[in-house]
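Subject: Protein record for review, amino acid sequence with backbone structure tokens
Concerning: The relation between a protein's sequence and the shape of its backbone.
How to read it: Take the token row as a discrete description of the fold.
Enclosed: The protein record, placed directly beneath this head.
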Amino acid sequence: MTSERAYHHGDLRQAVLTAALDVIRTDGPGALSLRDLARRAGVSHAAPAHHFKDRTGLLTAIAAEGYALFADELAEAPDLKERGVRYVRFAAEHPAHFHVMFRPDLLRADDPALLAAKDRASAELRAGVGGLPPAGRGDDDRLAGVAAWSLAHGFATLLLSGNLDGAVGAQDPEAVFRSLAELLFAPGSS
């Protein structure tokens, strides 16, 4: 009965998002079903469609929420290296969001909330690159941004998939990432 009460108080949207994140975390986005999420929330099978229309709408809402959280995380970092650390931290703390955010095949690319959140996160990443001294970013800010993004995203993806377990071992992944970022973006490395 608690889920029905939550629904009547307007919490169904968040209850479905939370349940969806649990499913994605354990079984991946392919395992999502609005009918199953409705069952978990204790509401009719049509109730989630009221908020999300369909599975794509739900995944788009998850990605938009993820990008907003991601932008908040990046905004707190003073420089590019720490933005990379925040990138890795975000992936580790929000793996379900992370898995969905970078899967455009699962999302409504024209969704206004998604576009706004992505733009905000991108601006935070660009600000980090813009803060590098010219010697640390080369002649093309855009390519420096791609390099930084590739390093952070690649590291985070390898970390989440367990592929860095042997290489990182018991070391703090954030400290390892800082070392890698220093190698790539050290002053005078261009």
